[in-house]
Amino acid sequence: MKLWEKGYSLNGEIEAFTVGNDYLLDRRLVRYDCIASMAHARMLGRMGILSAKESREIIAALGEIIELDSKGKFKISPGDEDCHTAIEGYLVNKLGDTGKKIHTARSRNDQVLTALRLYYKAEIKETVSLCKGFLSALSAFRKKNRKVPMPGYTHMRKAMPSSMGMWADAFSESMSDNIAMMEFLQDLVDQSPLGTGAGYGLPIKLDREMTRKLLGFRRLQKSPIYAQNSRGKFEASILHGLGQIMLDLNRLSSDIILFSMPEFGYFILPKEMTTGSSIMPHKSNPDVLELLRAKYHLLLSLESEVSGISGNLISGYNRDLQLTKEPVITGFDVAKESISVASLLLSKMKADKNRCEEGMSAELYSVQNAYSLVARGMPFRDAYKNVSLKFGKQAERTQ
After folding, report:
1. For residue 381, what are the contacts with CB-CB under 8 A and spacing of at least 6?
2. What is the pTM of this model?
3. How many CB atoms within 10 Å of residue 91?
4. What residues have CB less than 8 Å from 192, skipping those under 6 apart?
5. What is the DSSP code (8-state) at residue 351?
6. Which residues have CB under 8 Å from 313's CB, separation 6+?
7. Of 19, 183, 280, 335, which has the highest C-beta tally within 10 A?
8. Helix 325-348, helix 224-259: angle, nearest 10
9. What is the mean pLDDT of residues 140-161?
10. What residue ranges define each of the domains in the chain, with the CATH number in brackets?
């Protein structure tokens, strides 16, 4: 049974094309759709559309579905199209006419949006928790190595003195900003679309405030048209936030790949986190860091995909938006796994103090030398030129 069933059979090829892999992706949403449907059933009970007994029966059956889903036993077939149809089908099969009442005062459009919002809230919360774990791992690395000197680079050339502590602080501050961005996104999606119907409201009085409170949303999404228009917009925003996290991991990876090279040796990668070559016996490769670096670009492509799909659509729901679901699910999976792996790597990585000290060559102190002359009264530009000539002559002698 399809939610839009009208008594005719859909062409098989068309059905497969329109369903796509939604019936597989929606396994992530079963729990959230059931939670939303429980709130909806309670609201329908208060309105008198469901009796107290019917409301209890529907809520109990939805609890059964959550339990089955937690054990991997709730099945969604291609014929169901999505989890929403499969859930209603379970209710109808179990409760008969009572199950048919659950969709009163609801469209699949606001039903899908509500389940997605609940899913996004849970995933953002988990992502923030992982980011905080990354900060803890970084803080532990900094505590052990903060005083270890390290050359600072601009234009990939030695520039000024730095340290492992200064390096770690850069990523710590940036990840803190990423957490703030994710918390903003949490607030953005924390608005209930339930009760907005297909995008133009419903010809029946609802207690949307009741379902908002039951579902833990901070506020209502009031405009029913915007409820639909925000799909794609919110998803692209989420992927942008995840992309900023991945940008940091990309740069972190590039730093560690470069500075763990034998030619530098500032970082020491644990052997158990490197791989080998099938032909060169001596190789220990930083594959994990190369993949971390590459996955930033994967997030970029997902954001671009969602932004592209969402563009040029007229206001209201368009089926194009079905294709924004998978990129966000993939984006969360990629980002969470990457943060976890990066945290593990930081917890095991070491700094080679001797190699770092060897890298602290004289040119790193040119600015310090110039300011020593400034402290004696020499104008900065003259001091700059004086030190520049000095290092120029030293360079000539070494050629």
Report:
1. none
2. 0.92
3. 24
4. 114, 117, 208, 211, 212, 215, 217, 219, 220, 221
5. E
6. 232, 320, 321
7. 335
8. 30
9. 97
10. 12-103 (1.10.275.10), 108-358 (1.20.200.10), 362-398 (no CATH)
